[in-house]
Design a protein that fits this description.
Strand content: 15-25%
Largest sheet: 8 strands, parallel
Structural class: alpha/beta
Strand order of the largest sheet: 12-11-10-9-8-7-6-13
CATH topology of the largest domain: TIM Barrel
CATH architecture of the largest domain: Alpha-Beta Barrel
Number of strands: 13
Number of domains: 2
Distance between the termini: 76 Å
Shape: globular
Number of helices: 16
């Protein structure tokens, strides 16, 4: 009986295995006969817009022979960028997987030789293209052959040997490319690189930075929705009332944060971008200037991610660069905190390229980076227009820390972009905090800031009832302390430090704003 059962199990297993194999073969056969995009079944790429989005600007698509249709240009653009993407992956992994889908046999030979050499030497290349400017040179009458010149292709590359980075850098080159239409897809047949004689162009900015020296402001989140200001949480009435409070305190500047993932990453959610613009409208109505931090809660910096972050920033910058309330761009909040986990050189390379991009998109507003301490703020200090740093140590040590940075960076304006003191008085700090201690801290800091003429933005307007775990983690002593940095308590009542900051700011000539009359308040009904 056991023997019969054993035979039955073998037969059933054999039949089941064959059924799975036949089903798989049938699915693949059916898939390739439905005209589906081969890339998705081969997993060569995800949806291209989600993984690789270099800037592409067609210089010219006119053709003396057959005119190029818009649909054809879009198909060529998609397959051409896909070819670059799989090439980047091939150079990183030393694998030809997916290359056959976007390159003909002849075009694959050179790449095959390069990968063979890299495999033998243990070399890998992490690379991405940043900009493409294709120009149509020829489009055949039968619509199956295209020749284009891709001018000034900007490329960033990191070279690794046995997994250790050995070099990095940017280059610019022009490519002459021939593409053939095969099986409904455009494949590269020839691609010849022509080095450019001209180096990367530096954008000249003519900035007047007097307004930076007058910054007296606050890092802002609404009390009920800290770190979650936009989307369904957005409340224009609350924002308007808060900005009135800021203006009445005598402050003139706000720092706002854009959460990278929550805003849609490379594909910005229109509603949230509209809300950010409306926030600037309200700020303008109260005569407040705004510094926008473009990347908060972002920490990858990998080469594959570059073009996605570029599109994120570009959409915001091009939309808001002409807004009258805009004072400056802050690229990233405390990127030095990612040095240990992501690698300092990787973080700095990403920041440097983003600075270059920002200058291309908007050459009339200054750019800065929000470093977590004075020591870190020496990084890229000659690349930014003004240097921003944070300080959460004892007030007694601030003068020394500031002088250190001033000596290291003598030729850039310095801004204390974040500072503050928690008034938390509870078990997690041995009941050692108080509003009085917070007030003493701000009094000492305001004295130094006034004497040294240091622009500042403190943290923050309100005490918060809840702190998201994603901000400071789960440790209760960190969350408890973070709740009490406001100069207004959780019931919106002024704490002792509120009067100290207000008095200090209003005593400075030319920094306190005049209260905006009701007739000049924003029309909130017109805002979605």
């Amino acid at each position: 009986m056991n023997r019969s059962l054993y035979r039955a199990l073998l037969i059933v297993s054999f039949l089941g295995l064959n059924a799975i194999i036949l089903f798989g073969i049938g699915s693949i056969w059916s898939y390739f006969n439905t005209g589906a995009d081969r890339a998705s079944i081969l997993h060569v790429q995800e949806e291209l817009n989600q993984v690789y989005r270099p800037k592409i600007t067609w210089e010219d698509t006119k053709n003396e022979g057959r005119p190029m249709e818009r649909q054809t240009r879009e198909a060529i653009e998609k397959d051409y960028l896909s070819a670059w993407y799989v090439r980047n992956i091939a150079l990183e992994t030393n694998s030809l997987f997916g290359i056959a889908d976007y390159y003909t046999d002849s075009a694959r030979l050179k790449l095959h030789d390069i990968l063979d050499i890299n495999r033998k030497s243990g070399t890998n290349l992490k690379t991405t293209t940043i900009e493409h400017r294709p120009k149509l040179e020829f489009y055949s009458e039968d619509g199956k052959l295209v020749v284009l010149t891709d001018k000034n292709v900007l490329t960033y590359q990191e070279v690794y040997s046995a997994g250790v980075p050995i070099s990095k850098g940017k280059s610019i080159a022009t490519y002459q490319v021939m593409l053939l239409l095969e099986d409904g897809f455009w494949r590269i047949r020839h691609m010849v690189k022509i080095p450019n004689e001209n180096q990367l162009e530096q954008v000249q900015k003519d900035l007047k930075l007097e307004s930076i020296s007058k910054i007296r402001g606050v890092n802002y989140y609404p009390q009920q929705t800290p770190w979650n200001m936009y989307g369904t949480s957005y409340n224009k009435e609350v924002v308007s009332e808060d900005f009135r409070t800021v203006q009445e305190l005598g402050l003139n500047t706000l720092r706002l944060f854009v959460p990278y993932e929550a805003f849609g990453q490379a594909t910005i959610e229109p509603q949230k971008l509209n809300q950010l613009e409306h926030t600037l409208n309200i700020a303008q109505a109260f005569d407040l200037k705004v510094i926008i931090t473009l990347f908060d809660f972002y920490g990858d910096y990998g080469v594959r991610d570059w073009t996605l972050t570029h599109r994120h920033a570009e959409q915001i910058v091009t939309r808001l660069k002409n807004h009258k309330a805009l004072l400056a761009w802050d690229i990233k909040n405390e990127p030095d905190l990612d040095f240990d986990t992501r690698g300092k050189e990787k973080v700095l390379a990403w920041l440097e390229q983003m600075i270059s991009n920002m200058n291309q998109w908007d050459n009339s507003h200054p750019v800065t980076i929000g470093w977590s301490n004075p020591e870190a703020a020496t990084n890229l200090s000659q690349k930014v227009d003004f240097v921003s740093f944070h300080y959460y140590r004892e007030a007694s040590g601030f003068s020394k820390a500031f002088q250190f940075l001033r000596n290291k960076v003598p030729n850039r304006p310095l801004v204390l972009q974040e500072f503050g003191y928690s008034s938390y008085d509870g078990i997690w700090n041995a009941f050692s905090g108080s509003e009085k201690d917070q007030a003493t801290y701000h009094q000492e800091m305001q004295k130094i800031l006034k004497e040294e003429h240091i622009p500042f933005l403190f943290w923050t307007l309100y005490d918060f009832k809840e702190i998201p775990t994603s901000v400071v983690g789960k440790l209760p002593w960190r969350k408890a302390r973070q709740k009490y940095f406001g100069i207004l308590d959780s019931d919106r009542n002024p704490k002792t430090s509120h009067a100290i900051i207000g008095k200090s700011v209003k005593n400075e000539k030319g920094t306190a704003n005049q209260t905006v009359p009701l007739s000049a308040q924003p029309n909130l009904k017109s805002m979605p």
